[in-house]
Structure formats: structure tokens, C-alpha cells
Amino acid sequence: xxxxxxxxxxxxxxxxxxxxxxxxxxxxxxxxxxxxxxxxxxxxxxxxxxxxxxxxxxxxxxxxxxxxxxxxxxxxxxxxxxxxxxxxxxxxxxxxxxxxxxxxxxxxxxxxxxxxxxxxxxxxxxxxxxxxxxxxxxxxxxxxxxx
Length: 147
Description:
Layout: H1 6-16, E1 19-24, E2 31-35, H2 37-54, E3 60-65, H3 71-86, E4 90-95, H4 101-106, H5 110-122, E5 126-131, E6 139-145
Parallel strand pairs: 3-4
Antiparallel strand pairs: 1-2, 4-6, 5-6
């Protein structure tokens, strides 16, 4: 069709019962298109809705444990972790170490040993994604579901 004046294009659009929509304006002449704007917006909304429906959201679930947790209590917590991993969610396992004199008395190796024990239990069901920084008050690890 070529380049046509805006007034002429506007007249053509109104004669056809459609809208003149500006596609791009970063040139010497603006690029316009004659279309049904309401239908275009409806189709865009429908496409976006369909894309949202098909995407899977991964949530972060959190499980708190104590540094000197008993074996049976840890097994109960791990059942919950496996349930979260089975649903496709990431799991953050955080350790409560605030002000406990037992933690200070027994040494600072309790938390890394606990995390090693947890990763041994998790095995092939999940992969270690990240660890907390050593200077953080709350120690934690994030486990992602195995693919």
C-alpha cells in the first residue's frame, strides 16, 4: 500500500468500521495499522491468560529444625520435605541457633553436620541449590527437586 497521509488512513479505517492503531512512532513517519482494536486487545488478553495457565509456579516452602534434633523428629520433618519436593516446590531448611547455650557449648560443627545428614537423607530426590552465608544469624540450605 505504501506510505499514506494519516488523514487518508484515518478515513479508510472509519469507512471500514475499524480503528487506526499506531504500531511504532520512532521513525520519521509513524507506523500505523488498520484493525479492530477491541478484538486485538481481547486476543492479547486471551493469549496472556493461556500462557499463565500453562506455566508452573515454584513455591519456596520452609522447614525449621533445631541443631540437636532427635532422629525420629528429623524423620518426621524429612517426610514433610519429601512431600514438598514431590509437589515440585523448593524447600528451605532453616536451623534455629539463637542464644542456645547448648549450641555454643557443643561447638559450631553441629549445623554443618546436620545439613550433611539432611542431604544424605534427601539423596537423589533433591539437589542442594544454595547455602546461607557463614555470617548470617540463621543458617539455612535450599533444596530443589531433582529433575
